[in-house]
Amino acid sequence: MRKKVIYGLGIYILLAHIFLTDALFCSASEIGSGAYPVENRTQTEQPPASAITAVSVSPGTTVVSKSASYAFVASVAGQNNYSQEVAWSIQGQTSQNTFIDGSGILHVGADETSSSLIVKAVSKQDSNYSATALVTVQTASYSIQVKASPDNGGTVHGGGAVKEGGYAVITATPNNGYTFTGWLLNNNKVSDTSQYTIENVHSDGVYIAEFKPSDCQIQVSVNDSNAGTATEGRTVKYGESMTLDAAAKDGYHFDGWMENGTTISTDSRLQLNHITGSRNLTAMFSRNKYDLSLYCWPASTGTVSGQGTYEQGSNVKISAAPASGYRFVSWSENGNVVSSDQEYEVNNITKDMFFLATFEKVQTKTYSITASVSSPNGKIVPEGKSSVLEGSGISYVIIPQEDYDISAVYVDGKSVGAVSSYGFSDVKENHTISADFTRKPAAGGENQAAEQEADQGDEADDGTAQDESGEDAQENEAQELTGTLKHLAVSVEEAERMIEAGEDTELMAGALEAGDLKLTVHNDFVKIDKESSSVTDFAVAAGSLLTKEEKIEMLQGNVSAVIHLSIDDIDGEETQLTQKAFAEGKLPDMTVGRYFEISLTKAVQRDVQTISQIPKKLQIVIDVPKHLQADNREFYILRLHTNKSGLQDFAQLSDEDDNPSTITFSTDRFSPYAIAYIDRGMAKPETAEDGEGSVKESGMANVVGIMAVAIAVVTTCGLVWCIVRRKRR
Question: What pLDDT sits at residue 713?
Answer without folding.
Answer: 59
